[in-house]
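pasting for the record
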Amino acid sequence: MIRSDELDRIAIEDMKHTSKVRLGFSDFSINLYENTKNKILTELNATEQDWNNPKWQLKNRISSVDEISRYVNLTQEEYDDIERVSKEYRFAITPYYFSLIDFNNPNCPIKMQSFPNIKELCEGGQLDPMNEEQSNPSGRITRRYPNKLIINVTNACPMYCRHCQRRRLIGNFDKHISKEGIDESIEFIENNETIREVLVTGGDALLLSNNQLEKIFYRLSQISHVDVIRIGTRVIPTLPFRINEELAVLLRKYKVQVSTQFNHACEITPEAVRAIDMLVDHGILVRNQMVLLHNVNDDKYCVQKTNEELQKYRVIPYYMFHPKEIKGTNHFQVSIDKGLEIMKHLEGRTSGMCKPTYVYNSPGGLGKIPLVPIQNIEHEKEGYKFTTWENKTFVKKF
């Protein structure tokens, strides 16, 4: 009981902090969502049926400062900054995702990820830090590892994340890869027996039609040495209405695994969970790849709660990416020490199922490097000195 009481004190202290993390299921978030949603529906003379239609959502994306001004009172400085940045870097926000923004919080995680920020015009960073342009042997492929590769099938996304690693490809128009580009990419895979895993991504691969996706999945499934097909998408947090029965059946048919990106617990809404349930109930593996972002989620309690919410709704926390040094994204940068501090905090304080692997992407596309708190183990003269999650130590002799 002494030990149990000791653990209770730690858990209660953690709960004081994690309870302050905004959740997508909180009354605050739901009321915020419904209020903005109703405002948009009224302004556009639209219905609930329209709102739940992904094509309507894409058609009515908020993509100019004047459209933002229809729903939010901007200062002249805010108006000018958004307009100036949008001339350099295009933006678009689905009405759904826009409705999650808390405009009374200047550091609202949804706003930070979706609104153009004047800091995007600061110097620093690279357009292609992962050297993807030089990692393309054929078609629209990116290859960094011996037995797996990426096919980039589109530059389109429901919402253009301000931290996007491929913002150089956003351009002025949404455009899917041509049939010739797909054919060339798949022919390369057919002719290289070393490739066992293919990630279909973009942009957001789920902005292709089900018919277009099936053609790609079918051809990949006919290649004997391809064991795994994955798809990269952020529609679950930004356009959850795209996930329906027909799509889930299609993904199950070809045993496609899903990689998504929730960066904050407030993105895990009832609508997003409906989409998750649709996929998982059809036997589809869904994994999350969080990006660590300054003023969005670079807080140990926020990361803990977000990953606990993901586990709760049957999404596997897979990676926590250190932010890439992309041109226009310096304001999202965090220190590696901060990331290691977060990972150290997660040890023992949450389930191992809630702990993603913290990774740093090597410059030039040389691959991911897992980062772990180095103070956990030290070499001693007599053996190894281990440090537990409570900073208690012991030595295991050789």
